[in-house]
Amino acid sequence: MKKIKELHSRAAxxxxxxxxxxxxxxxxxxxxxxxxxxxxxGQLSVLSTIIHKKITAPGLRNLLQQAxxxxxxxxxxxxxxxxxxxxxxxxxxxxxxxxVADFARLTSESLPVWVAARKxxxxxxxxxxxxxxxxMSLQKxxxxxxxxxxxxxxxxxYEEGLxxxxxxxxxxxxxxxxxxxxxxxxxxxxxxxxxxxxPPIAQKDQIxxxxxxxxxxxxxxxxxxxxxxxxxxxxxxxxxxxxxxxRYRPDSLEFIFSALHEGxxxxxxxxxxxxxxxTPLDEGVSxxxxxxxxRLWENIIGRSRLFxxxxxxxxxxxxxxxxxxxxxxxxxxxxxxxxxxxxxxxADEVSYNLHIIVRFELERDLLAGNLRIVELPELWNEKxxxxxxxxxxxxxxxxxxxxHWAHSSLGYFPTYTIGNLAAAQIWDAYCRSxxxxxxxxxxxxxxxxxxxxxxxxxxxxxLYPPAELLxxxxxxxxxxxxxxxxxxxxxxxSL
Amino acid sequence: MKKIKELHSRAAxxxxxxxxxxxxxxxxxxxxxxxxxxxxxGQLSVLSTIIHKKITAPGLRNLLQQAxxxxxxxxxxxxxxxxxxxxxxxxxxxxxxxxVADFARLTSESLPVWVAARKxxxxxxxxxxxxxxxxMSLQKxxxxxxxxxxxxxxxxxYEEGLxxxxxxxxxxxxxxxxxxxxxxxxxxxxxxxxxxxxPPIAQKDQIxxxxxxxxxxxxxxxxxxxxxxxxxxxxxxxxxxxxxxxRYRPDSLEFIFSALHEGxxxxxxxxxxxxxxxTPLDEGVSxxxxxxxxRLWENIIGRSRLFxxxxxxxxxxxxxxxxxxxxxxxxxxxxxxxxxxxxxxxADEVSYNLHIIVRFELERDLLAGNLRIVELPELWNEKxxxxxxxxxxxxxxxxxxxxHWAHSSLGYFPTYTIGNLAAAQIWDAYCRSxxxxxxxxxxxxxxxxxxxxxxxxxxxxxLYPPAELLxxxxxxxxxxxxxxxxxxxxxxxSL
Lengths: 495, 495
What we know:
The structure is a homodimer. Chain A has about 500 residues and is mainly alpha-helical. Chain A has 2 domains: about 1-95; about 120-495, Neurolysin, domain 3, CATH 1.10.1370. Chain A has helices at about 1-30, 35-55, 60-70, 75-95, 95-120, 125-145, 150-160, 165-185, 205-215, 255-270, 285-300, 305-320, 330-335, 350-370, 375-390, 415-435, 435-440, 445-455, 465-475, 480-495, and strands at about 225-230, 235-240, 240-245. Chain A has a 3-stranded mixed sheet. In chain A, α1 crosses α3 (about 60-70) and α10 (about 255-270) packs across α11 (about 285-300). The N and C termini of chain A lie far apart (about 55 Å). The model of chain A has no long low-confidence stretch (mean pLDDT about 95). The interface between A and B is large, with 38 and 38 residues.
């Protein structure tokens, strides 16, 4: 008992320090004066060092080992505490400090090189750095340990317990279906009614409407706030402090879907049980499950005709002069347009996942030593031809388009698609529990959906590992069936 | 050499942690969602504990002792580092942790009682708490140590090296002069031209004009920002991150003088030498010297006719419909009105210091045991009658008006008046160096003034103790002569 109390006290300290770290990062993206970059780097470094020392402390290891030995007598909450802290402890202990520092230096050196390479559309410039990044990523996998494939050690950092073997199986099923849908193009705006482009939307109208979108899905502004940043994101600075950001371009509807996307992330965090405050359970359990919630609110709900049957008239009123002469059906077709392109971040709901599968396959084979880095652009282009039917015109729009590799983030990309797949499975489970789901959506009874999600997912925070949570909610493991069916329904039959 | 390097490394860590603490506090006042109060309290507590441990560490004490022993061989910068860290170390070590926790609890219990007492205008409600606060403050003085008067130990926390004996002498001279000036009332708005009240000023116009005021005095927005808070303040989050706040009331010109006041604080911090970044030298040396800079820019410069001869036409343009038919002289008279009242925070430049002297004398005598707390309201009212010629109608407008005592901040009040006195002395020194100072002001050559202040004061940060700095800049110690003469010039002869 005393040991568990001591463990909770250490967990509370770590959680508070991580929340402070999140504030430093939020402020840097949203508020910080431009000249303060070096000041902030110093602060982040000092605080990260303190956190690293505390998470790797031998005293913590002893407590965790003792707790693990008496695991049978622990409450579920305490078991989860031990599971999460052990993961953090082991991860931080296995990587030597010198290796972490060297890798961080390599990353900060690689970023400007990648920027230059992309600018000049010349992969050769970036090649020697990517070689080092892949080699150090392999080293990292070795330090962290894995059973079957070095990719698994990296994937596990983002999606606890998932393996490349599972992804191989899921994607083998998913890719041909997506490629077929992309070929058919599915829903496109009706050609005879070109309702877009629309007149520029004033920033204050965008802010007001995105705040309204957040309110209708149940985001609590007393426990958060929405600000402007270069890229929209959600962050958690405390149990009652989950902040979102957005960006506003006069000629884009992105602000609506960013609000719903970040709002989905924030709903997850705002509805974690209060008893988990000040513990590492007080956050979403994995990137994939987190992304399932942003995608569920942004896409499954937020691009549905049923949702807009209620909110389109409100949008028409909120943004004077933009959509008064647009029909609901045309609006809904527009926001569901399927149009494959070379750039991942601009991709539609269908082809987005093909972009991810390309990257997954290449990363997996790079780490397995099955391909030479010099061949990467060629292989990239072949896969784009095969999966998306597109010819890559330039490495800048091809293999060099993402910052992730320059950032040393291998193993990260699949979480986006895991999010899409899980979102569709979870939505299916919701619909089974609410056969009148169409009415629920049409009537704007989003609180009913949020309540179900809170009960089944949000309130648990990180109590259950992601696979266990999904099994519990959906009665089945991660698969691509629900998502494929969802896309087919959307593109073939209705909106 | 190696020890000095180690000292610098510890100083850098502490400075970074204190800057993080400042961000947590800034965010709390300016950005934080209302429901996150408890989260933030937890974060502040965790971080404060870490800072306390680091500043009281025996390893630091050893380094400081060794450095002090070789003080003759130290560079001025390193000597100052040792001086400041030793002050911090000693202060934190002398106060037992339990005492600090007990005092903090007493303070947080006292605040709501003071609020209730003030609401009901009943000193008796607050009396038992104030008794405990005075008694614990005495205990604090004993822990910290003093030579002559327990007040000195508390005063030294805010104004290094100053004593109540010095303040007795200075205030004995100052008070009768101020009382005479208050009796004469000095400048008042001309009765036949009631130019105020003016129409409400839109917040966006107030923000734009206060930003312009900050810019004209030389505040760098790339290294700071201005936001809204309940009470204006300045804070430092890093060498290139000095933030100010302001507040905007439609019927008040306060926003102009708050911008100049906080801008003065911020100019001090923005112009500290870059080599002091990441050390405790990277801040203003004392509250009094800091306040001298806010008051110099707000009052001596910012309420002068010469300053407004340049900026009043700009104000007239910036705030349409408010001042178009107002004469410069009437405006200047209005912002320099001398009108004693019961409330300190609403006081004019002359009577403000009488409010301070009342509080100083009472605190001093309370700590010396020369008066019983139950007599406090009566003594307060007597002094207001004697010094300001006012009859206190209620304890709410008298002895209960300030939060400071409920906050356990005894020894703090004089720093405001020290600021006024030092500002006048420093301004005299500036005028000796620039005989054309009137032209300098009239032409808006504020950069010339800022440069001189930077060279003589700002750049040094905390390199010199406050008394030494003042002696160096003005060739004399703190006194009331310059300030009295400044007020006389203002009220008797010109604006």
